[in-house]
Design goal:
The protein is mainly beta. The chain has helices at residues 7-13, 18-25, 124-127, and strands at 40-49, 53-55, 58-60, 63-69, 74-79, 89-97, 102-112, 137-142, 149-153, 164-168, 174-177, 200-205, 211-216, 233-241, 246-254, 272-281, 286-296, 302-312, 334-340, 352-360, 366-372, 382-390. Strands 1-22-21-20 form a four-stranded antiparallel beta sheet, with no helix packed on it. It has a four-stranded antiparallel beta sheet with strand order 4-5-6-7, with no helix packed on it. A four-stranded antiparallel beta sheet has the order 8-9-10-11.
């Protein structure tokens, strides 16, 4: 039988849950990945893409997610452009590197992601107030079963758009949507649910491909306040079955903002934040978490702080049944610092949002690549950072 992208499977995807479609139509293309252990990360090199780079009729930028397609030997990178410059899309690229150097990034194609009716996602301007979905894509993963694509959107509280996780064929055609529980519904009154621009920011398949992890960038309204330079907060990280069943949910202790913001001309605090910008499942209970903070100085210039943590949900409380974490009793996940990007001493650390495990290097250790979202700003860069994972 053909892969999930066949016409038959597309029709089924419109009426069945994701798991039903997958079990009926998708033969195994890849072997389950073995668990990965990490003690440290060794920096190998950096590559950058030009700002506002034109490629196959699109504007390259806003790269918020990256993943390696083992069967094809290339990488997928999703843009968070809300169809304002080019339709919502992802890129395929070849990364040229070895254990000694990161030599180049070669874009190969751009793929438009499509809605159930086959149309591209519209921009907010194109909708002009009419009903519709504006996609704010933040993470993307290659399905270890068949090489299809899963991607997440943060939604938009002001527009009344809830976050979603969708499944697409490699050509961008819609296959299915992961059912999310009511906990992820948005509330215009800001009483519960994900905060605007703080929703589903990271997704990752478990190594065996049987479940999908999803992380919120910041705390839900009912769970806690946003982090400050004086105090951290708590985020929810959720494990879903391929059919959308909630398999577990855990509290992640998000760190405080690592520096105080500057002041504007009126003496008010400039912008500062901290949040989870990506996750990567390493084993049955272990994940790598990318915490990224942006802090403005007095002149309004941002400095970005990035830290990578390994967490373990073993022994942590399943908080799925807790409607609010304020005042609740629970055990958070265990958390260990793996790398503070400041220790790499790069000329610039930008808005790193994507993280993907790559092929093994010559010594058998896995590679790891981070990618930054330049927000299509001339003051920022699209950088890709390559590391060796030391087990």
């Amino acid at each position: 039988m053909n892969l999930i992208g066949s016409h038959y499977c597309r029709r089924l995807a419109g009426i069945l849950l994701a798991a039903t479609v997958l079990s009926a139509c998708a033969p195994l293309r890849m072997q389950p990945a073995p668990p990965v252990t990490v003690s440290q990360l060794r920096f190998i090199g950096e590559q950058r893409l030009p700002v506002h780079m034109a490629f196959q009729g699109s504007v390259v930028g806003g790269l918020s997610g990256i993943d390696y397609d083992k069967a094809r030997g290339d990488w997928v990178m999703v843009s968070d452009d809300r169809s304002e410059r080019s339709p919502s899309r992802y890129y395929r690229a070849r990364l040229d590197f070895d254990a000694t150097a990161f030599k180049g990034v070669h874009l190969e194609s751009v793929v438009t992601l499509r809605q159930p009716d086959g149309s591209a996602y519209p921009s907010e301007k194109a909708l002009a107030g009419r009903p519709g979905i504006v996609a704010d894509l933040e993470s993307m993963r290659v399905d270890p079963r068949d090489g299809s694509i899963w991607y997440s959107s943060e939604g938009d509280v002001a527009l009344g758009l809830k976050p979603f996780v969708r499944h697409a064929a490699a050509d961008g055609g819609y296959l299915a949507e992961l059912p999310l529980p009511p906990l992820f519904d948005i509330d215009a009154g800001h009483r519960f649910g994900p905060r605007d621009n703080q929703s589903i920011e990271g997704i990752s398949f478990a190594p065996d491909g049987q479940s999908l992890w999803a992380s919120l960038e910041g705390p839900m309204y009912q769970d806690g306040d946003l982090p400050t330079p004086a105090a951290g907060t708590v985020n929810r990280i959720t494990r879903f079955g391929r059919d959308g069943r909630l398999l577990g949910q855990y509290a992640y202790p998000l760190g405080a903002i690592p520096a105080a913001p500057g002041k504007d001309k009126d003496g008010k605090d400039r912008y500062a934040d901290n949040g989870i910008s990506e996750i990567l499942a390493l084993g049955e209970t272990r994940l790598l978490v990318l915490e990224r903070s942006a802090v403005q100085n007095d002149a309004g210039v941002y400095r970005v702080y990035v830290r990578l943590y390994e967490i373990d949900t073993d022994g942590a409380s399943d908080i799925a049944s807790l409607p609010s974490l304020r005042g609740a009793s629970y055990r958070a996940v265990k958390k260990r610092l793996v790398l503070d990007l400041d220790s790499v001493h790069l000329p610039k650390i930008d808005n790193l949002e994507g993280m993907g495990l790559g092929p093994a290097l010559a010594n058998g250790h896995r590679s790891l690549v981070l990618v930054s979202d330049d927000n299509f700003s001339k003051s920022q860069v699209t950088q890709l950072l390559l590391f060796e994972v030391l087990p």
